[in-house]
Write the structure tokens for this entry.
Amino acid sequence: MAKQAVNPGLLNRCIGVGALLACLICGSDGLAAARLAADSSPSQAGGGWKSTGPLTEARTIHTATRMINGKVLVAGGYNSASGYLAGAEIYDPTAETWSSGGSLIPARGFHTATLLLSGRVLAVGGWNGSGYLAGAATYDPSGGGWTAAGALSTGRGAHTATLLPDGKVLVAGGMNAGVSLDSAEIYDPAGGPWQGTGFLTTARNSHTATLLFTGEVLVTGGAQNGVALAGAEVYDPATGTWTDAMALTTARYNHTATLLPDGKVLAVGGLNAGVSLASTEIYDPAQGTWTGAGPLSTARYSHTATLLPNGQVLVAGGQNSGGVLTAAEVFNPATGIWGVTGALATARYSHTATLLSSGRVLGVGGRNAGGYLKSAELYRSPSASLPLLLLLLEDD
């Protein structure tokens, strides 16, 4: 009789249930067995996507921010029918529905959105077809409206915005009038105008900025007037200064950078001289060095990367020379191994992916060969809850 193929999702769930029972029955010995099961199970092989309620309006190059109430604010973006968008929408994970989030005036794409300590969301800069924007606005979830939040000294798009430990927001780099910027500015929610805070050592746009455990900000890669950069630098909020860090092994832009649970930073994919990258590398702040982390199964740029509750990193969608991707992969920092996981239902790039309070990931909008997307999807990993169970049992 022919052997039937094993369903990896079912196998992963069986491993998880067996490990939990071992914990309950065998105490500490069972806990050790559970850890072994979690480490040796297929790397997120059973994870998958399912459709959820669609946006009211298709959009790409938008922002998506999980608010304190667990809902997700999607703002701005672009589609060919309406052009640059002012409208915002709010996703309710419980009902899996969207509602109005007011209007972000003026319309914009290529902007940033940052959750402030107060629970408000700060939208900054961007481009709207008429020029690069200096204006900023905050969204108040309690009142449901947008309020002007001053203006940058320099309008910009394709920049970064990072919430600092003191509650201020660092905006760095970007582009204006086709030229990459080296300027950086600080927003203080307590009031007052935007303040300059030194200059990047290298002008750049389409880069990444990651808050480190030290409170410093690591900026990596990007492009300078269309040329991919390998350079990295660190911003020190205590002194307001920028310092060069060790360069990436491979120059890249339109990549991602994700802070791992151990404080290291994972840089993934991107573009270099028109070539899509499969390479990934890890920055160790303690050593100040980059180390290769093994290649993706599928090269990509304009993808998303999301830290999951179990400490692994989900990379989804994007595009390469072969077209727009449905492919998704998961990186396990404990083993340094990438594993293919369930594919997106719809190929997409320049979309957003937001971790929800439930541990699921919400993928929204983007674009593919068929046009601009209003569809949304939810990713769930069957083993995502196991590490949390292990932590709870270990505390007993």
Notes: The first strand starts at residue 48 and ends at 52. The longest helix spans residues 8-26. The chain is about 10% helix and 40% strand.
